[in-house]
Write a structure and sequence with these properties.
Low-confidence stretches: none
Shape: elongated
Distance between the termini: 44 Å
Structural class: mainly alpha
Largest sheet: none
Oligomer: single chain
Number of strands: 0
Number of helices: 4
Radius of gyration: 22 Å
Length: 79
């Protein structure tokens, strides 16, 4: 997903440059690339990352535990 976000940002950047009145619409420096990558990474959520890992088969396809019952013996030992 980060790649898709980055590609989108690089596609709309020349439009922003044109609106700003810049001469070379497609010129890009390393700092701008790093800023675009940081912005793209902010768009990626932990849910997306987990879904990608599950899609590869590296992680098992499991349902998260919604509620856990308390065991009195364990609670007494921890307290």
């Amino acid at each position: 997903m980060m790649k898709a976000h980055y590609c989108w940002l690089t596609l709309i950047r020349p439009l922003d440059c044109e609106e700003a009145g810049e001469d070379n619409l497609f010129a890009i420096d390393l700092l701008t690339v790093m800023q675009l990558l940081a912005q793209a990474w902010e768009e990626v959520t932990p849910v997306m990352i987990a879904a990608c890992w599950r899609h590869t088969g590296i992680l098992p396809n499991f349902q998260p535990i919604v509620a856990v019952k308390a065991i009195p013996e364990v609670e007494a030992a921890v307290s």
